[in-house]
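Most newcomers find our protein records easier to grasp once they have seen one. To make this concrete, we reproduce a full record directly below:

===
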Amino acid sequence: MKRILFFGDSLTAGYGLMASQAYPGLIQQKLLEHGHAYTAINAGLSGDTTAGGVHRIERWLDQPIAIFVLALGANDGLRGIPARETSQNLQEIINKVKKKCPDAKILLSGMEIPAIVPGRYAAEFRVLFRELALRNNIHFLPFLLEGVVGMRHLNLPDGIHPNAEGHKQLAAHTWSVLKELL
């Protein structure tokens, strides 16, 4: 059975939800429904940053991966980590995956800082994902939280983490790109 590794933060982990309600679990259901022989592995870690991801990626690469879904960066944005640093960390993760699993297809899930954040940071942060995808010639999902962020009915009471309905949207966005890689 081929493996799809979802490597991310609390958005991937499904903060506040059962694993089956998080978007990687929902993707696993879609894979089964469509007869695809893949196992979706949820390597989401709440609170993780791209720097943390650089340090923990190695342990997930000891078995072959057919598809690697990289969904880190939200916590970098929330903490105001310079876009250049976030980009360098994501590049290092991509490099490690390419070296250890050279046949793996890579899907980068983009993040955005809300437009209400003043200054250049939001724009720099948004563009870093697109630039990484182009530079590495990898598949790209522009914004994982599109249509979910800021929508009260799709988020937990904290207003940050998607609820079960919100994760259905994340799964739909991810599936729209992922299905082409199967």
About this structure: The chain has seven helices and five strands. Residues 83-100 form the longest helix (18 residues).
